[in-house]
Amino acid sequence: MKRSIVKNQLGIYLLLSLYLCACNTQPDIDIPEEIASLENLTVVDPDSDPIQTGAPVRTAVYGDTEDVIIGALRFFETDHLGRVFIADGSLLVIHAYDPDGNYIGQVGSEGDGPGEFRRINSITFDDTYLHVMDTETLRISRFDLNTFEYVDARDLPFTPDFSGGYFSPPNSFDLLDNGNYLIHFSLGFVSGQEEEDENRNLTGRIMDLTINEIQEEFVYSLPANEALVRREGTSLYAMNVPYKRTSHIHYNNGQIFHGWSEELLFKWYDLTGSTLRSLYVPYNNVPLNRDEVVSEYADRDEPWRSMVRNDQMPETWPSFIEAFPDDEMRVWAGLYTDNPDSYTWQAYTIDGELYASFTWPRSKTLKAVRNGALYTIETDPDTDLRQVAKYRFQ
Fold first, then answer.
1. Structure pTM?
2. What is the DSSP letter of 43?
3. How far apart are CA 167 and CA 223, in angstroms?
4. Mean pLDDT of the chain
5. Quick one: DSSP state of residue 24?
6. Domain ranges of the chain
7. Which of 58, 71, 89, 115 sits 20 to 30 Å CA-CA off 45?
């Protein structure tokens, strides 16, 4: 039997006052009833003073140099030594930098042969190897972390299935403690189908490397990102818009982390799908002005313009644009605010403390926190090029 994690029903909740015992040092805060009933729930007092004060300061930049030009910065990852690896979606290579931002080498190249890529989807590490998923060639390649030389590869045992109105290909992966892979599957649309789009789920399954098979059981099944979709006969139009709700799923310290951007509620699950703990932050979502959103898409071609104009938009923006756990099990979230040019970034400990709170321009998107360093993808105001930057609190 497949395990699944059922999405909480979102709607209008009856508010009640939840007072937790002094031994848990929890604040006396009004929270929704369905959230208050969760087991192992921790509530953060959003009005408390953060442990870290002030905004972090930039200490290094990773991007174009005199010797290398990045074609298209897709994403990046950091290893246990603090090195940064940038996936270049145009040149189809991985650029490597030392912790101070100096360019130190290239991993892989474009092509179909061993150690070559057609699409770089995901990167992860152990202490010895860099693992890279390529969903065009359907394989995960390993490279030596010291020399960046190609070592070997595993084929992804995946057969596309377009039935049921959706296409669910492998999208990214993580390395489990036992050496197997946790494969995360994305979810696309297929034209000519009239399925209930709100029932779409993202799933994760384990790839057993001893037999090179992906297990049938789901490690998790969580709601997929909302999107604007129009089907006309065999034609399909799909578009992501910022006011739709999104899922944020991460594997961290042997646990599955999930945040649904409707509210600041975060959950952790084990690899059997059982809920371990939940963290909730009371927050009033920013009201959405429909006329302003429609005007943003007024210059778009059809059918995109009318898809936005005819959509039943929510009354508020999502709670956050980004959410993820760091290596200390703190949760980092970029909150929507009344200022359309900035986000408020906050971090919460699993004990319910407000760890950090600061405001950054929206051009500076926090993507990872590791070993006390904050890593962003941002645009250089002088060159208009995207780059990775590292920050630390003073």
1. 0.89
2. E
3. 15
4. 89
5. G
6. 15-392
7. 58
